[in-house]
Amino acid sequence: MALSLIGAGSSIKSITLVAILVGVEQRLAEQHGIDLSLMDERAMSQSRSPFRTIGTLTDYLEALMRGKTA
Amino acid sequence: MSEEQKRVALVTGSRTGIGRYLAEHFLNSGLSVVGCSRTPSDLVAPGYQHHLVDVGDETQVVEMSRAIGRQFGRLDILINNAGIASMNSALLTPLSSAESVLRTNFLGSFVVARESAKLMMRHRTGRIVSFSSVAVPLRLEGEAIYAATKSAVESLTRVLAKELVRYGITVNAIGPAPVKTELTRSIPADQMTALLEHLPLPRFTTLEEIAHVVDFLIHPSSDGVTGQILYLGGAG
């Protein structure tokens, strides 16, 4: 079962999600030298949030990183 | 204290006026200071570095924030000072002027606070001090747009204080009376006199008075002071 990050099935608070997303941004920058903004207009405009589950977040991250290196 | 342990302060609008004074004040207190403005600064001092940044430009702000993260790995204090004024009858204010003041005073304060808070979260401590104005409580004629942007800064301050308290970050604002800076120099003397007469303490706020309030708000013992708007000159 997919681990939900937001919505009714989520076991974490929205503020925890904020901390997770900020933490991911910082680790990408510090440990891999990759500067990404997860919470930009693209993410907010998607009809289905990329932050729904760990899986969709991972997919979104991979897409952003592919775009970064393309 | 080693370089790594020094508290790091970011001061926006540090080229002149209040920002310049506070940047030098922090340097004299032993802090590392990062300043920014749209045009180059002539402040050269050990522990000081300057970025050419328009706070209304999100890309520039994000890049500066990342540079601070890479160099220092931390940010302890943000002085959200950059601002512009526009004194004019509301009926004679072009939309472009209103947008410009809104972009710098409010949106700039928001973006810089957002990016700074991300850096402060790393160490679960931080101090954000923004600038409002006595123009808000005094409801000064001729300052509709300026006062509206500062009202927005006040609301932002109060809500951010709630959102960031769990990360050990305090968010407050200072509302000084007019200060003798480039910003107020263009205001005709008779208008300034009339403006000051609205205040219980009808005189300019000094830079020393502002630094005193800032020192209180950023003090390590001020963990419990957040979401406050502190006016000077008896306004409020």
Architecture overview:
The complex is a heterodimer of chains A (70) and B (236). Chain A is an all-alpha fold. Chain A has one domain. Chain A is built from three helices and no strands. By secondary structure, chain B is of the alpha/beta class. Chain B has one domain: NAD(P)-binding Rossmann-like Domain (Rossmann fold, 3-Layer(aba) Sandwich), CATH 3.40.50.720. A seven-stranded parallel β-sheet of chain B has the order 3-2-1-4-5-6-7, sandwiched between helices. Classes of the chains: A mainly alpha (70), B alpha/beta (236). At the A-B interface, helix 1 of A face helix 2 of B.
Helix content of chain B: 40-55%
Oligomer: heterodimer
**How many domains would you count in the coordinates of chain B?**
1
Q: Spans of chain A of 5+ residues with little confidence (pLDDT < 50)?
A: none
What value does the average pLDDT of chain B take?
Answer: 94
How far is it from the N-terminal to the C-terminal residue of chain A, by CA? 32 Å
Largest interface: A-B, 9 and 11 residues
Q: Compute the number of helices of chain A.
A: 3
What is the H/E order of chain A? Answer: HHH
CATH class category of chain B: Alpha Beta
**What class do helices, strands and sheet pairing of chain A give?**
mainly alpha
Number of strands of chain B: 7
Structural class of chain B: alpha/beta
Strand content of chain A: under 5%
Distance between the termini of chain B: 40 Å
The CATH superfamily label of chain B reads NAD(P)-binding Rossmann-like Domain
Residue share in helix of chain A: 55-70%
Q: Return the domain count of chain A.
A: 1
Uncertain spans of chain B, ≥5 residues at pLDDT below 50? none
| Overall number of strands of chain A | 0
**Helix-strand sequence of chain B:** EHEEHEHEHHEHHHE
